[in-house]
Amino acid sequence: MKAGTYCTNMLAINIMIAIGCLALAGAALVVVVALARAMTTPAAAKAGARLPAGSLDETAGVEEKLAACVRRPTVSSFDGLGENAAAFADFKEDLRLLFPLVHANLERRDIGEHGLLFTWKGADAKLKPAILCAHFDVVPAEDAVQWRHGPFSGDIAEGFVWGRGTQDIKVMLVTALYAAELLLKEGKSPRRTVYFAFGGDEEVGGNRGAAKISAELARMGVKASFLLDEGGPIADGMLSFADRPLALVGIAEKGYIDVLLEAEGKGGHASMPPRISAAGAIARAVAAIEAKPFPARLSFTVRSFLDRLSPYVGMPYRLLFRNLWLTAPIVKAAFGAAPTTNAMLRTTAAPTMLSGSSKENVLADLATANINMRILPGETVSGTLERVTRIVSPFGVTARPHHPKEVVEPLPESPVDHDGWRAIEAALRGSFPEAVAVPFLFSAGTDTKHYRTITEAMYRLTPLLQTSKDLEGVHGRDERVAVDNLRRCALFYKRLIASI
Ligand SMILES: [Zn+2]
Questions:
Q1: Which burial class, exposed, middle or buried, applies to 261 when counting CB atoms under 10 A from its CB (0-12, 13-18, 19+)?
Q2: Residue 442 has pLDDT above 70, yes or no
Q3: How far is ligand 1, taken at its centre, from the CA of residue 199, in Å?
Q4: What tens digit of pLDDT does each residue of 64-120 get?
């Protein structure tokens, strides 16, 4: 071995040792920083706080109001045909009797066929208004005979109010108006103007209700500070690793599109098929879409969710959630493994309806598939369509919107550093003190889409403490709400309105 080679080798070894030392030091530093960040997580308030005794007496009586509203079968339908017009009219008339002070002191306007707008003028005209939304239509109850109490009975029994709308979402309309009624009785009023905006066709898109109200508010030049609409529950026991119930406040909402895939064939008899049929092309396209999921991304909403959640979880989770600069790939992999958390990370594509020919021995001259897609905030409808087109076109398949009128762009992500957010947090402390508010990505559609241009921030929360089991009543059988829970919901609104 030559001396020069020996020197070069020693130099290489020295460099490698130096790099190794640096890497070790770097790794140690990373661990120290990660641990420090986890350990300096803001302290959580003590769990297990309870409402002062007697608090629920404050809002007693709200159960009869809700029961009366449930008894009107206000089932909405897409074209309006088959809707029980008398039920809707009666419901609107009932409100006058149920909330007399609201009707004596607030301006009420019936807007279009399905819009109701109440205006409560605030004392300080300089403050931007707040919009409190809900809808008074409900979905049908096809299996009515199997309910323990009829879906439109409005029975108050076994500690619950029963029927359609008790969870989705006459409950929010009634508790908000009841809170206003109680505050008026006490001679109180909000500092900022409050609009109560109620649509009667949310379940079928909201075009005859919320869209009309929003257009009217825009015409009046209203630019609201924030809006609160139905949304996530105060989740009780749903996230096993959190030490208390979580009020899942939707600060963003996914977009929506049904993409129609089409492959043309020549039809004909199935005894002499081509090598690739139209049905085969569609099948390949659907398989390719499933094989290439949209990219995962930790959006502002998900990052805020994990950050705000970190004080209420154990150390291993805290280490992960507080150090996304380092742990994002692990969090993405873990979230990607289950459908519920995966939906928070990416635009999803679900093949739902496939069709070929209508006869066993006939080739399809047109095969189709519907891909139901929920678009992540930050992405767009057109970008989504382009990606799907790129994936399916090699198979001779085209992609286009299935129902262009139902397409919804993802809604903007609302800030958590905002007066509206703080007001909701404070109202929760006064009504559900054992829970904590965390920002959340809401994956179902709501009426909020109609208000996107006239509000700074939009929040989606259904202020009811609910387990996964309780949520089965939403659009399901035996929809009901516990009377205590209902009274706390009214207390939430009372605290909220009094503070804004
Ligand atoms: Zn609803």
A1: buried
A2: yes
A3: 10
A4: 999 999 999 999 998 888 899 999 999 999 999 999 999 999 999 999 999 999 999
Q: Chain-wide mean pLDDT for the chain?
A: 92
CATH superfamily for 55-252+411-499 is Zn peptidases (3.40.630.10)
Ligand 1 centre distance from Cα of residue 73 (Å): 15
Short-list 130, 149, 5, CA closest to 71: 149
Check if the beta carbon of residue 379 is closer than 8 Å to that of residue 387: no
Q: Measure 263 CA to ligand 1 centroid, in angstroms.
A: 36
d(CA 250, CA 238): 16
Domains 55-252+411-499 and 255-293+356-408 equal at CATH topology level? no
Cα–Cα distance between 172 and 71 in angstroms, integer? Answer: 16
Tell me whether residue 137 is one of the annotated catalytic residues.
yes
Q: Alpha helices, DSSP H only, in 165-299?
A: 170-185, 210-219, 278-291
When mean pLDDT is compared across 18-27, 268-277, 403-412, the lowest value belongs to: 18-27
Tell how far the Cα of 135 is from the centroid of ligand 1, in angstroms.
Answer: 7
Cα(108)–Cα(95) distance, integer angstroms: 11
79 is annotated as an active-site residue: no
Among the listed residues 201, 202, 230, 413, the single catalytic one is 202
Q: What are the structural domain ranges in the chain?
A: 55-252+411-499, 255-293+356-408, 296-345
Residue 80 structure tokens: 């309006």
Question: Looking at the DSSP assignment, which residues form a beta bridge with residue 374?
Answer: 256, 348
Please report, for the chain, how many H helices and E strands are present, in that order. 15, 15
The pLDDT of 422-426, averaged and rounded, is 97
> What pLDDT score was predicted for residue 288?
98
Q: Which of 3.40.50.300, 3.50.50.60, 3.30.70.360, 3.20.20.190 would CATH assign to domain 255-293+356-408? A: 3.30.70.360
Q: Rounded to the nearest whole angstrom, what is the distance from the C-alpha of residue 170 to the centroid of ligand 1?
A: 8
459-488 pLDDT, tens per residue? 999 999 999 999 999 999 999 999 999 999
290-338 confidence digits (pLDDT tens):
999 999 999 999 999 999 999 999 999 999 999 999 999 999 999 999 9
Q: How far is the CA of 387 from the centre of ligand 1 (A)?
A: 31
Annotated active-site residue in 137, 230, 262, 479: 137
**Dist CA 97 CA 87 (whole Å):** 16
User: Tell me, what's the pLDDT at 43?
Assistant: 67
